[in-house]
Amino acid sequence: MTETTDLTEVKAAARKAAFARRKLAFESRPPGAAGRLSEVLAGYRGVPLSGYVPIRTEIDPLPAMAEAAAHGPVGVPVIQGPGQALRFSRWTPEGPMKDGPFGARVPVADDYFDPEILIVPLVAFDAQGSRLGYGGGFYDRTLEGLRAKRPTLAIGFAFDAQEADRLPVEPTDQRLDMIVTESRVLSF
Q1: Which of 4, 81, 129, 157 is the most core-located residue (most Cβ within 10 A)?
Q2: CB 79 within 8 A of CB 101
Q3: DSSP reduced 3-state for 119
Q4: Is the pLDDT of residue 46 over 80?
Q5: Per-residue pLDDT for 95 more than 60?
Q6: pLDDT tens digits, residue range 112-163?
Q7: How far, in Å, are 5, 13, 52, 162 from residue 19 at the CA level?
Q8: How much is the pTM?
Q9: Nearest in space to 100 (alpha carbons), one of 117, 87, 116, 113
Q10: Tens-place pLDDT, residues 13-43
Q11: Are the C-beta atoms of residues 125 and 148 closer than 8 Å to each other?
């Protein structure tokens, strides 16, 4: 077996365990996460940001995004295709939405912009700022491109239960700058 195959298998196992932890946390829905995210974003009023429309058992950032939209542009990711970076289309709480790739809702009208802050969904995180996503590399590619242009703040949003002791990482994996959960804010 090659080292890449080994890492792929390790990540798959870590992902499976993390999905189970996230599902349990989602079912119990501990309070406080959206309010904590709103508090963090209040320090960046008016800065263009992107959140996400939650799918499956992802923690819900929509209340914090709605609050931020009153002060500046807020977008959501739109998948362009396999192996491509995400683009971000302007979102408003009352704006019309349609089904996008992977079951995520996206705005009906494309109004793309580059955010300076990304609220990033994840499957698992660790205390070093590493993130385990779904495996498509969309956020890694996107953050690398945005960070090459200007400083871009990546905020992971998750349940406490999604924390892992240590995650397998590759050189292409982009670290998070901050993680917000229902009980705390971690900065790196």
Answers
A1: 157
A2: yes
A3: strand
A4: yes
A5: yes
A6: 999 999 999 999 999 999 999 988 899 999 999 999 999 999 999 999 999 9
A7: 21, 10, 18, 8
A8: 0.91
A9: 87
A10: 898 888 889 998 998 887 778 899 999 999 9
A11: no
Tokens of 181: 């959960």
Question: CB of 106 within 8 A of CB of 78?
Answer: yes
Phi-psi region of 135 (alpha: psi -120 to 50; beta: other; left: phi over 0): left
Q: What b/e readout covers 70-92, taking b as 16+ CB neighbours within 10 angstroms?
A: eebbbbbbbbeeeeebbbbbbbe
Amino acid at site 34: A
**pLDDT, position 4:** 56
* 3-state secondary structure at position 106: strand
Set out the domains of the chain in order of their start, with CATH numbers. Answer: 3-187 (3.40.50.10420)
- Mutual orientation of helices 33-42 and 62-69 as an angle, nearest 10°? 30
By three-state DSSP, how is residue 134 classified? coil
